[in-house]
Design brief:
mainly beta; two-stranded antiparallel sheet; 3% helix; disordered N terminus; disordered C terminus
Length: 191
Protein backbone atom coordinates (compact mmCIF):
# COMPACT_ATOMS: atom_id res chain seq x y z
CA UNK A 1 0.00 0.00 0.00
CA UNK A 2 1.25 3.49 -0.88
CA UNK A 3 2.29 5.78 1.93
CA UNK A 4 0.68 9.24 1.98
CA UNK A 5 4.08 10.93 1.81
CA UNK A 6 5.02 9.17 -1.45
CA UNK A 7 4.42 10.95 -4.77
CA UNK A 8 2.24 9.25 -7.35
CA UNK A 9 2.04 9.91 -11.09
CA UNK A 10 -0.95 10.69 -13.26
CA UNK A 11 -0.63 10.27 -17.02
CA UNK A 12 -2.13 12.77 -19.46
CA UNK A 13 -1.97 12.16 -23.19
CA UNK A 14 -3.28 13.00 -26.63
CA UNK A 15 -3.03 11.14 -29.90
CA UNK A 16 -4.44 10.31 -33.29
CA UNK A 17 -4.86 7.32 -35.53
CA UNK A 18 -6.80 5.69 -38.32
CA UNK A 19 -10.09 3.82 -37.85
CA UNK A 20 -10.73 0.99 -40.35
CA UNK A 21 -14.52 0.71 -40.44
CA UNK A 22 -16.52 -2.49 -40.69
CA UNK A 23 -17.79 -2.83 -44.30
CA UNK A 24 -21.40 -2.97 -43.06
CA UNK A 25 -21.09 0.60 -41.75
CA UNK A 26 -20.87 2.07 -45.29
CA UNK A 27 -18.23 4.51 -44.01
CA UNK A 28 -14.81 5.40 -45.37
CA UNK A 29 -11.78 4.72 -43.16
CA UNK A 30 -10.90 7.95 -41.38
CA UNK A 31 -8.75 9.65 -38.76
CA UNK A 32 -9.66 9.85 -35.08
CA UNK A 33 -8.40 11.91 -32.17
CA UNK A 34 -8.01 10.77 -28.58
CA UNK A 35 -7.40 12.21 -25.12
CA UNK A 36 -6.29 10.04 -22.19
CA UNK A 37 -6.16 10.42 -18.41
CA UNK A 38 -4.79 7.52 -16.39
CA UNK A 39 -2.28 6.01 -14.04
CA UNK A 40 -0.16 2.95 -13.41
CA UNK A 41 -1.82 0.95 -10.63
CA UNK A 42 1.14 -1.45 -10.36
CA UNK A 43 4.42 -1.83 -12.21
CA UNK A 44 2.62 -3.86 -14.90
CA UNK A 45 -0.99 -2.60 -14.87
CA UNK A 46 -2.29 0.77 -16.02
CA UNK A 47 -5.85 2.07 -16.14
CA UNK A 48 -6.87 4.88 -18.50
CA UNK A 49 -10.02 6.88 -19.11
CA UNK A 50 -10.04 7.45 -22.88
CA UNK A 51 -12.07 9.76 -25.11
CA UNK A 52 -12.10 9.02 -28.86
CA UNK A 53 -13.75 11.34 -31.39
CA UNK A 54 -14.25 10.71 -35.10
CA UNK A 55 -16.27 12.05 -38.00
CA UNK A 56 -16.11 9.63 -40.97
CA UNK A 57 -17.46 10.12 -44.47
CA UNK A 58 -20.52 7.97 -45.19
CA UNK A 59 -19.98 6.10 -48.45
CA UNK A 60 -23.55 6.57 -49.68
CA UNK A 61 -23.59 10.40 -49.65
CA UNK A 62 -19.93 11.55 -49.41
CA UNK A 63 -20.67 14.12 -46.67
CA UNK A 64 -19.15 14.41 -43.20
CA UNK A 65 -22.43 14.11 -41.34
CA UNK A 66 -21.72 11.23 -38.99
CA UNK A 67 -20.09 11.87 -35.63
CA UNK A 68 -19.00 9.25 -33.10
CA UNK A 69 -17.69 9.98 -29.59
CA UNK A 70 -16.55 7.25 -27.21
CA UNK A 71 -15.60 7.22 -23.54
CA UNK A 72 -14.02 4.03 -22.19
CA UNK A 73 -12.08 2.66 -19.25
CA UNK A 74 -9.12 0.76 -20.71
CA UNK A 75 -6.84 -1.50 -18.69
CA UNK A 76 -3.42 -2.44 -20.00
CA UNK A 77 -1.07 -5.19 -18.90
CA UNK A 78 2.52 -4.13 -19.64
CA UNK A 79 5.19 -6.81 -20.05
CA UNK A 80 7.88 -4.82 -18.24
CA UNK A 81 11.55 -5.79 -18.36
CA UNK A 82 13.83 -3.83 -16.03
CA UNK A 83 16.37 -1.66 -17.83
CA UNK A 84 14.37 -1.54 -21.07
CA UNK A 85 12.81 1.77 -22.21
CA UNK A 86 10.07 0.08 -24.27
CA UNK A 87 7.54 -2.52 -23.18
CA UNK A 88 4.79 -4.35 -25.08
CA UNK A 89 1.27 -4.52 -23.62
CA UNK A 90 -2.21 -5.92 -24.10
CA UNK A 91 -5.28 -3.67 -23.74
CA UNK A 92 -8.93 -4.35 -22.92
CA UNK A 93 -11.63 -1.75 -22.41
CA UNK A 94 -15.34 -1.22 -21.86
CA UNK A 95 -17.26 1.95 -22.43
CA UNK A 96 -19.95 3.71 -24.36
CA UNK A 97 -20.11 5.27 -27.80
CA UNK A 98 -22.50 8.03 -28.81
CA UNK A 99 -23.27 8.48 -32.48
CA UNK A 100 -25.17 11.19 -34.27
CA UNK A 101 -25.93 11.20 -37.94
CA UNK A 102 -28.08 13.32 -40.15
CA UNK A 103 -29.45 12.21 -43.49
CA UNK A 104 -32.37 12.81 -45.80
CA UNK A 105 -34.67 10.81 -43.52
CA UNK A 106 -33.68 12.81 -40.43
CA UNK A 107 -31.17 12.55 -37.66
CA UNK A 108 -30.45 9.42 -35.66
CA UNK A 109 -28.80 9.63 -32.22
CA UNK A 110 -27.86 6.70 -30.01
CA UNK A 111 -25.64 5.39 -27.25
CA UNK A 112 -24.04 1.97 -27.58
CA UNK A 113 -21.85 -0.45 -25.65
CA UNK A 114 -18.23 -0.35 -26.85
CA UNK A 115 -15.65 -3.09 -26.26
CA UNK A 116 -11.97 -2.52 -27.11
CA UNK A 117 -9.13 -5.07 -27.38
CA UNK A 118 -5.64 -4.25 -28.59
CA UNK A 119 -1.89 -4.65 -28.34
CA UNK A 120 0.92 -2.14 -28.48
CA UNK A 121 4.29 -0.89 -27.34
CA UNK A 122 4.94 1.94 -24.90
CA UNK A 123 8.25 3.83 -24.89
CA UNK A 124 9.37 5.57 -21.71
CA UNK A 125 11.31 8.69 -22.72
CA UNK A 126 11.59 10.13 -19.21
CA UNK A 127 8.72 12.51 -18.42
CA UNK A 128 7.22 11.81 -21.86
CA UNK A 129 5.84 8.49 -23.07
CA UNK A 130 4.96 7.40 -26.59
CA UNK A 131 2.52 4.62 -27.30
CA UNK A 132 1.66 2.80 -30.52
CA UNK A 133 -1.39 0.53 -30.53
CA UNK A 134 -3.44 -1.58 -32.94
CA UNK A 135 -6.69 -3.32 -32.13
CA UNK A 136 -10.41 -3.79 -32.58
CA UNK A 137 -13.40 -1.81 -31.31
CA UNK A 138 -16.75 -3.59 -31.25
CA UNK A 139 -19.82 -1.33 -31.25
CA UNK A 140 -23.27 -2.73 -30.40
CA UNK A 141 -25.69 -0.47 -32.37
CA UNK A 142 -29.20 -1.94 -32.05
CA UNK A 143 -30.76 0.92 -34.06
CA UNK A 144 -28.42 0.72 -37.04
CA UNK A 145 -29.73 1.56 -40.50
CA UNK A 146 -27.64 -1.40 -41.71
CA UNK A 147 -28.82 -5.01 -41.52
CA UNK A 148 -26.22 -5.57 -38.79
CA UNK A 149 -26.46 -4.40 -35.18
CA UNK A 150 -22.85 -5.20 -34.26
CA UNK A 151 -19.79 -3.69 -35.91
CA UNK A 152 -16.11 -4.51 -35.45
CA UNK A 153 -13.75 -1.75 -36.56
CA UNK A 154 -9.97 -1.91 -36.61
CA UNK A 155 -7.73 0.92 -35.44
CA UNK A 156 -4.06 1.90 -35.39
CA UNK A 157 -2.87 4.93 -33.45
CA UNK A 158 -0.08 6.83 -31.74
CA UNK A 159 -0.28 8.69 -28.43
CA UNK A 160 2.12 11.05 -26.66
CA UNK A 161 1.73 11.42 -22.92
CA UNK A 162 3.27 13.08 -19.95
CA UNK A 163 3.50 11.84 -16.39
CA UNK A 164 2.64 14.44 -13.75
CA UNK A 165 3.79 13.75 -10.19
CA UNK A 166 1.37 14.54 -7.39
CA UNK A 167 3.79 15.06 -4.53
CA UNK A 168 3.07 15.49 -0.81
CA UNK A 169 3.71 19.24 -1.30
CA UNK A 170 1.01 19.44 -3.98
CA UNK A 171 -1.50 17.56 -1.80
CA UNK A 172 -0.56 19.75 1.17
CA UNK A 173 -1.48 22.92 -0.76
CA UNK A 174 -4.65 21.56 -2.44
CA UNK A 175 -6.83 23.36 0.14
CA UNK A 176 -5.79 26.69 -1.46
CA UNK A 177 -8.12 25.90 -4.38
CA UNK A 178 -11.10 26.46 -2.07
CA UNK A 179 -10.23 30.18 -1.82
CA UNK A 180 -11.10 30.46 -5.51
CA UNK A 181 -14.25 28.34 -5.38
CA UNK A 182 -12.61 25.17 -6.60
CA UNK A 183 -11.54 21.79 -5.39
CA UNK A 184 -8.83 19.28 -6.37
CA UNK A 185 -11.44 17.68 -8.64
CA UNK A 186 -12.54 20.89 -10.38
CA UNK A 187 -14.62 23.99 -9.88
CA UNK A 188 -17.36 23.29 -7.37
CA UNK A 189 -19.70 25.81 -9.03
CA UNK A 190 -19.88 23.87 -12.28
CA UNK A 191 -23.14 21.93 -12.37
Amino acid sequence: ERELDEPFGLNLGAGAGVQFYDQDRNASDDLYGTAVFGKFITKNVSLDLEYVGQNPVLSNNNQRNWEMMALSAVGRYHFVTDGRSWNPYLAFGLGGQRHRDGNILGSRVGNNLLVTAGAGIQWDLGRVNMRGEVGLRSDQDDDSASSSDQFTDGYAGLLAGRSVDVTPEVRERAHLLHRFGGSPLGNSRVK
